[in-house]
């Protein structure tokens, strides 16, 4: 059967190479950050705190991979957990979502747990890199395949690098390890406030260091390039080896 997919990889490549378009996208991104643009959106009623383009990318990944387990570090208001759960619901599988956060605010937990998509969600409170949490995560992941991981908690180089090293072994061939907020490396300090992460100490620097130590993952630049606006440049990592 002929493939009628209207997506044109050559156009995506041309757009990625168009400096004028890329500069326009950068200006739009930085301008929108001044107004907390990523806070404007909800998924099925819960704040998701993501750019719509990255939500679309995750939708494509989940539909393609069909994971039985999605592990997410960083919960906040729970919109991303609800999104992942709803995608698994559409797939009609027995897929589960495991969310991890150092501090799950009680009001957020209440809203997540009473949501119709909560039936697929399990939450763990604690540091994503602690031995106790990792033991629970590994046990939860046992026997589940494929596994998809998204990292969106503490954004310092050291923390993200530890997450990459600890969670990468759980990701199965053909699936993804997605690192959000790598864009911090490309942002001016005045947009980052008093947080410790910034240029030179960011998820992107952690990704680059991690990739120098493994051949299991490659950057999916075609996926990134078609988004034009993304908080995860260099952060969509596809697992290409067992």
Protein described:
With 242 residues, the protein is α/β, with parallel strands linked by helices. The protein has one domain (9-239): Vaccinia Virus protein VP39 (Rossmann fold), CATH 3.40.50. It is 40% helix and 15% strand. It has 9 helices and 9 strands. The chain has helices spanning 9-17, 19-33, 52-65, 79-91, 106-113, 131-141, 157-167, 203-211, 221-227; strands at residues 42-43, 46-47, 69-73, 96-101, 121-125, 147-151, 176-179, 217-219, 236-239. The chain has a 7-stranded mixed sheet, sandwiched between helices. A hairpin with a 2-residue loop joins strand 1 and strand 2. The radius of gyration is 17 Å and the shape is globular.
Name the shape in a single word: globular
CATH-defined superfamily: Vaccinia Virus protein VP39
Distance between the termini: 31 Å
> Helix segment count?
9
- What is the CATH C-level name? Alpha Beta
Name the structural class: alpha/beta
The profile of the biggest β sheet is: 7 strands, mixed
Helical amount: 40-55%
Radius of gyration: 17 Å
Low-confidence stretches: none
Oligomer: single chain
- From the 3D coordinates, which CATH architecture would you assign? 3-Layer(aba) Sandwich
Helix and strand topology:
Blueprint: H1 9-17, H2 19-33, E1 42-43, E2 46-47, H3 52-65, E3 69-73, H4 79-91, E4 96-101, H5 106-113, E5 121-125, H6 131-141, E6 147-151, H7 157-167, E7 176-179, H8 203-211, E8 217-219, H9 221-227, E9 236-239
